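Session log. Operator J.P. requested a structure for one protein chain; no other inputs attached. Running the standard single-chain path with token output.
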Amino acid sequence: MFVNQQCPKSSSPFEPKWDGDAADIPWGYWISRIVLVGVALFLVAGVGLANLLETHCCSNDSSAIGSMRTISASQAIFLERNPLQRYGTLEELGEDNYVDEVLRAGAKQGFFFEVAQRTIEGEHQYWAKASPMMPGQTGERFYFTNESGVLFHSDRDFEPGFFEIGQLSPELRAFDR
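Structure written below.
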């Protein structure tokens, strides 16, 4: 039962005054405490989930960068060892075990991968592009490389193609990591 006088155990005017029997505390008091704890847990979970999604995005971007570097190195080896003296497709790079089976299929850790190659008048060219499956959720950037071996990135999608080094899309910036 509530008492109008100050409880000796608490000096706070915000604590309910009671004589020690928990059954006498009104339901409203317990419900308000449960709601406050629920709201606090909801807020903590929301912040944690946002951080988890951001970490997942960064992890996928790092994996895409590594895969693009693998493709670039594999293309150099493929060109050197191929009797036709040309760059390879993702399928051909996978057949020769230069890239793993997952990358060979064209999708890995939240990214789609494309590779194209051509030979014009004895000049061998290729390009590779990595695009997030769901931009902003599975990855933040789009990545591009070609026979120069330089890795480029863009915050927006772009049309890949065979470019001269000085003629790259203005959206592409050299990756500096």
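Operator note: The radius of gyration is 30 Å.
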